[in-house]
Fold this sequence. Notes:
The complex is a heterodimer.
Chain A lengths: L6 E5 L22 H13 L4 E4 L11 H4 L4 H11 L4 E7 L5 H15 L3 E6 L18 H19 L7 E4 L4 E3 L9 E2 L4 E2 L14 E4 L4 H10 L2 E4 L4 H17 L8 E10 L3 H14 L2 H12 L22 H13 L4 H11 L3 E5 L1 H13 L5 E4 L6 H16 L12 H5 L21
Parallel strand pairs in A: 1-2, 1-13, 2-3, 3-4, 4-9, 9-10, 10-11, 11-12, 11-13
Antiparallel strand pairs in A: 5-6, 7-8
Chain B lengths: L7 E6 L21 H13 L4 E4 L11 H4 L4 H9 L6 E7 L5 H15 L3 E6 L18 H19 L7 E4 L4 E3 L9 E2 L4 E2 L14 E4 L4 H10 L2 E4 L4 H17 L8 E10 L3 H14 L2 H12 L22 H13 L4 H11 L3 E5 L1 H13 L5 E4 L6 H16 L12 H5 L23
Parallel strand pairs in B: 1-2, 1-13, 2-3, 3-4, 4-9, 9-10, 10-11, 11-12, 11-13
Antiparallel strand pairs in B: 5-6, 7-8
Amino acid sequence: MSHRQMHLGVLLLAAGNTVSGWRLPEAQAGSQNYDLIETVARKAESGKLDFIFLADGLNSFPKMHPAMVLRFEPLTLLGALTRTTKRIGLAVTASTTYTEPYNLARMLASLDHLSGGRMAWNIVTGAFAEAAANFGTAKHPPQKERYAIAEEFVEVIKGLWDSWEEDSLVMNKATGEFVDASKMHELNHAGTFYNVKGPLNITRPPQGYPIFMQAGASDTGVNFAAKYAEVVFAVHQNMDTAAAFAKRLRDLAASYGRNPAHLKLLPGLVTIVGSTEAEAKAKLAELGALTHPIYAMKVLSERMGQDLSSYPLDEPVPELPPSTIMQGHAITLAETARRRKMTLRELRDFVGISMGHKLMCGTPEQIVDEMTEWFNAGTGDGFNLLPPWFPGGFDTFVDHVVPVLQKRGLFRTEYMGHSLREHLGLPRPEHPHANRATPRVTAAE
Amino acid sequence: MTKSSKMHLGLFVLGTGHHVAGWRVEGAEAGAENLALIERIAQTAERARFDLLFFADALNTGPKVHPSVLVRLEPLTLLAALATKTTHIGLAATASTTYSDPYNLARAFASIDHISGGRAGWNVVTGAFAEAAGNFGNVGHPPHELRYAIATEFVQVAKGLWDSWEDGAIVMDKATGRFADISKMHELNFKGQFFSVKGPLNISRPPQGYPVIIQAGASETGKDLAASIAEVVFAVQQDMQVSRKLVDDLRARAEKFGRNPDHLKVLPGVCPIIGESEADAKAKLRMLGEFSDPASALKVLSERLGQDLSSYPLDGPVPTLPPSTIMQGHAVTLSALAKKNNMTLRELRDYAAAAMGHRLLLGTPEQVADGLQEWFVAGAADGFNIMPPWFPGAFDDFVNEVVPILQQRGLFRTEYTGRTLRDHLGLPRPPHPRAGMATDAIGRTVAS
């Protein structure tokens, strides 16, 4: 019996996911560090990961996360990475609030062509209101309006990607027929927020459409994901909450007439891997020393429901009465402390480093055991990895955790297909005007 | 005024070649989405030591347009891809100021400049085709003067954004935890007539300071814009004396704007058709004419004269038309050419179809080299934007047969001496406006 296999993506926040991971002596960093980014992308590909993923934002300010203060513009960065990777998916964040559908449709289609069908688009409406000031608009639209805009944007972009049927370029030298104009379709979209005539000036992406991804956790965001997203990112520290969310999302998707299996849910996962549990804990401590201890203790105390700042740091985590707030967090953290025999200091650092995401710290086998537990509990279809620093914090995962997953039949040993749709097991949308079988996606040479 | 002893050469890449029917030539390869072909062309141009590759762009399409522009890879993502397959050649593309936001475009070009190690160039256009408006809200394409006013402000904003961070802002001090030197960060706080942009940009200063700014408008407003901001001017010129006058005019205007006139390079377009004899070259042009789709060819001419010509008799004279509101350079030069040579509409159509209205240089390799040399030596051009009628063969011919002649005559480089596009073009790198100024605790410059 073949195992159900996980999907794995990696967030390439090039200064590492943790605010201070870049400060480790062995860390390399920089969201403008092309060599590092390319190296990590190739490492991810050698580990047969489904995709690398670029976050984005449209503003900068001094106290921002170091990976976000200065960075390559991601669509052009991926233009370069399409040529230096061959199989791995390439996921990019782009906002629907501050760009025009025609422009984004072209760029994503171009990237899908350049990469031979490996693109995904993480649809965001823009978390930071400060971005508005860079685009002339006085105010960032309120959340409901941003999502209404995003919904119309997605309809327009799909319509633009369908401007040309497959095989519309004839290029018959003998007859002089360059294009079959009957296979070109104007969009003529006249909507609330957009009027777009079309057609797009690029042919249909190899994947039909790049894959839609989404990460919003509000009700509006979840609703949007249920309607459109093929990959959904989520932030959960508690397994039961994660599983409940997965069920909620799939039920909602089904209510929109979608096949819930065509929605891949990937909770975020931070890993600290050591060849022994002690080694992993030592790395945790080292990272912890670089994070702000008072801030981390404050966050831990909130989550445990009690001020822990007066307890001895290097003793085991104390038994506490049940928390009245953040119960999920309290239970999960107490569980984790017990399981890994953590001191209070170690648990404090754990919280400071995890940044709200699920953090697994231990040997490769311990981590795979925990990943498997999550995977089998219905939390999703795999994980979106958030390495705490590069390259080591990711290399250890690829070099030591992936082989264990592979040995247990939980992860691929080879890419079987060329496109990201094939890696993720997602169907290719047919052209709405197609009256025959659509051609298979072929790789760019 | 010092004159460069060597000409500059750009390669204008259009995916099916510049001739409307170039794709039909035996041996021609085609496709503006044909990445493998485009990469080969790029590498050939780099081997030939061209200053830059140039990709045009537009924001609309339709069934009857030139096959090179029907569908294409989006230029900014393409430039980034080509950055990984080339090491020295400049990478320039057109981007419109009418249908984009300065923040997004400034990021993209800065990113390409970083990824390529300082080889980006931006051909600033306002958008010739009113049809583009239909893809961006359908509120109507702004009229000519307004488009240029927007463009002027747009470029100002882009430069201000590129200056958000002084050189050397990324510190990455592990010991202190300081990632970026915030004192080197500057908000822009631009409030203009068309744009309101706070900044800062979220990418550090491009290696070239700013990408090289290119411009191609030939109207009076276009020439003023070119003279005030352009470092490279693409021009459409058929007549050497007229071209010389344009060069002098642009340099004089540049001086009036307080610029060094040497820092403005004029590159007229040239479509070389090379044969073993002049007759052989002409035969190639005839062959191309026979392959042309007449409707596409007439559309190319109509666009350039600013009016739909489909109802005029083909074997009659070129009609006198009201002044064009778009592509004014083309309109003027093509009308003049038709008049000078008593051309019928059909003849002008076929000429325009060859190179989208640009100068055709027909002949043996020596004759083509002579044609380029003559203009260069006369001060009618600082170099040329080469527009092969089809790929790859017509371009290979130029590289294999004409470039060596130019090199032997000492008119073109045999090796790159620098790494950036500014190096190749002999253009200075703009220093950061605040370099060396004192700043307060939150990065605002203060009088020192």
